[in-house]
Amino acid sequence: MDLNWISSSKVNHPLADAKQAVALVGGLPADDPAKALQQITEWLELLNQTNGFKIGRRFETVDLLDVAAKGHERNLSQDYLSTPRQQKYHENRLWNGVYGYWKELGDGYLVCVREYESGSSGITTIRKNLSVIVARALRALALQLKWVLLRYGPVEPRIWSEIARLYRLAEQGGMADGAITIYLGERGTTTPQREFLKAVVLAASSPDGLLPARLEIAERAIAHFAGAFRLSTRPEGCTHCFDLALSKPPVRLLTAANATETRRFFAASEALAELGRLTARISESGAIPAAASPWCRD
Fold first, then answer.
1. Which DSSP symbol is given to 266?
2. Could you tell me if 143 and 74 are in contact, meaning their C-beta atoms sit under 8 angstroms apart?
3. Is residue 94 over pLDDT 90?
4. CA–CA dist 166, 147 (Å, integer)
């Protein structure tokens, strides 16, 4: 990533200078993921509170921290899932560290979106990246949702209102179903629509009845089958509804529902059929296909 074009920034932030940003991130402790993620989270929090960044520079900085955090967040997440519930202090420390990171990362991308919508100087520099920014913000919000559900806690209305706002922006901008590479090196492509569906389907999958390890598997399976979920502006053939005008979770369709401008209906019928075929394949062969191995485990 070339950051030289923004190296003259005089914004009061430790990562305002491009070369210093790369050096600081490169100096994060590789053998202490908790400390590294905490530092990244603090930089993100300060960045989200700092005015004066050009929008292109802000996105570059959030992206730099996002990529740098991946391995550390993954290590802490695995540690959390393997920690006995009785070890409350360690569990709380891990949960706060990972959830806090996803909150600040999501806010970082949301600030970029708000500045874009307000017509901030330099928006042309990130217009080509807007669908990536929206998709990453949706993914960060879905992961905040997941981490709240891991503790069976109440989901803040903020999460639903931001998910709804981002998806409306994606639809209105004609980018909801446009395929993108959300991160370099990540297998396959995604769309803002798929990232939206990952969040609402997870919320609709009765997560309050799942143990943390099972919820982790459910979240990964939903990501794997996201392309097979049905999304429509009409209720026919759908089982759940999410209203983009409300700050509320999706609801099951128990009675006939009317289509409105803000209601989005969805179902997992095709995905369930694919899951059934995969289950039959595993039963017959006794082996898990390579494509399913990252999530299909007990």
1. E
2. no
3. yes
4. 20
Here the tokens at position 190 are: 């995604």
Alpha carbon of 70 to those of 140, 254, 286: distances in Å?
12, 40, 33
Structure tokens given for 90: 């360690």
Q: Looking at the chain, how many residues does it have? A: 298
* 103 against 297, higher pLDDT: 103
Whether the per-residue pLDDT at 44 is higher than 70: the answer is yes
More confident residue, 254 or 27: 27
What is the structure's pLDDT at 107? 98
* pLDDT at residue 2, as a whole number: 42
- pLDDT exceeds cutoff 50 at 293: no
* Separation in Å, CA 266 to CA 13, 163, 165, 230, 241: 43, 15, 18, 5, 6
Torsion angle (degrees, nearest 10) of CA 136, 142, 144, 146: -140
Q: Give the range with max mean pLDDT: 67-81, 111-125, 201-215.
A: 67-81
d(CA 21, CA 60): 10
Based on the number of CB atoms within 10 Å of its own CB, is 117 exposed (0-12), middle (13-18) or buried (19 or more)? exposed
Buried b (16+ CB within 10 A) or exposed e, 1-13: eebeebeebebeb
| Token digits of residue 11 | 């914004």
